[in-house]
Amino acid sequence: MNLKLMDNGEMHFVVNLAVTDQRASLDKPAYKLVLDGFEALLPELAAVLPKSTSPVASALVEEGKRLDADFDRHVRALYGTLDGIARLLPAALAAQVTGARAHLFPEGTALVNATYADEGMEGIRAEGRLTAADRALLAAVTLPDGTTLWQAVQRWFATAAALRDFEKRRLAADQADAAPALRHVDLRNRFIRLVRALETNADLSQEPNHPVLEAVRYYEARAAARAAAAATETRPAAETRPAAAPTPVVEPTPA
Question: With b meaning 16 or more CB within 10 Å and e meaning fewer, what string describes 221-237?
């Protein structure tokens, strides 16, 4: 078992199961040190679990969604507009338009699948890729409201800047509640040592399928599948975002 793949929530469930529902099965001389170790670990794991969503966190989530939607709308609109204009022009002019489009969106509309942080930085990158000729071309196209396509691009840059600012505030809020990385490593290592001790003692006690070990195997297998899916996942070519991983129909319920 690769126990390093399990997240804090999965480890917490196993430890909680051990000291509550399965306490009687571990309250034996052969498992005393393991049970004591699980009891000491439980409150420390609980302390590093994600906090309940606060009103401030909820507001940040909604703000992020709104800013992301505005950014994505500009990407699709600008890319589609430039694509349509290029199709209506002679070859030489069309090449200039598609060149400007490539400088703005080298990966096409797949950009809308990027993280908030990447989307925010892409505004800076795109502005740096544009040439003077690109800017002149964009400024020559007037939209029905009297503004130019260059002004529309600048509005997109502004949405990217807003996302960058949002990411700074979101990360600051996350870090305020985050446990130190070294603490997570220590808790994981202690969990692994306890599980290995449980495996050894369960084998000596002729209980290789002890219920706590079965729970560990279940969550380890789920974590391994999650890691494998992440490793093989490729960036979507279309604009659809990846679907969430399915949740098992039936899972053990902690007391």
Answer: ebbeeeeeeeeeeeeee
